[in-house]
Amino acid sequence: MKKQDLKPIADFLYEVGILSKTPRSGFHFLGSGKQSVAEHLNRVTYIGYVLATLDGTVDVGEVMKMCLFHDLGEARTSDLNYVHQKYANADEFKAINDLAKTLPFGNELMGIVKDLKERKRAEALIAKDADQIEWILSLKEQVDIGNTRAKTWIPSAVKRLKTKTAKALAEIIVETPSDDWWFSDKADKWWVTRNKEL
User: Fold this and answer.
1) Cβ(32)–Cβ(145) below 8 Å
2) Residues in CB range of 32: below 8 A, 6 or more apart
3) Which residues are registered as beta bridge partners of 36?
4) What band does 198 get if pLDDT is binned at 50, 70 and 90?
5) Percentage of the chain surpassing pLDDT 90?
6) What residue spans define the domains of the chain?
7) Secondary structure letter of residue 19 according to DSSP
8) Is pTM, for the whole model, over 0.90?
9) CA nearest 38: which of 11, 60, 13, 61?
10) Which residues of 127-148 are buried (b: 16+ CB within 10 A; e: fewer)?
11) CA 159, CA 184: separation in Å to the nearest integer?
12) Of 3.30.70.60, 1.10.3210.10, 3.40.50.2300, 1.10.15.40, which CATH number belongs to 3-193?
């Protein structure tokens, strides 16, 4: 590749970097917590991998690409939460299309976003469920530190889920304390002594 051909790639990499500075606006209405779009995309991609692997019939790589790119347009449009979306329209598809025109892999990028928006393929349904599961996890984390408003938001997010695996996972997430993965055995003396003499 020639040096001048790499300039749009550099621009793209700077653009995706702005996602780490773009806040997820739903947390403002929730009253606690905060998250950047990049943080959201990171966990959505892990969730997509898990859901696709558990499904066993879909292309895991395609699901992960959809998860990774599903909010890419927000680098240009910002994040519009459900209240904003009731009154404002962000044309994320146009934002992605404008970006894709500059990139050698732009056609692939447009295909990924188009598949995700149409939600005809199983991969797209799983990717969208991964997006919702990430929100459910975020809400549950806020519930666990005392935000009662977050608890009232979870049921509507659960109702958005489409796949059997995501629905089952959401049920477990809601029942599981968010610190259980590291602090499940609270009676273990490790938490007091760390196996050292006092």
Assistant:
1) yes
2) 142, 145, 147, 150
3) 23
4) low
5) 83
6) 3-193
7) G
8) yes
9) 13
10) bbbbbbbbbbbbbbbbbeeebe
11) 29
12) 1.10.3210.10
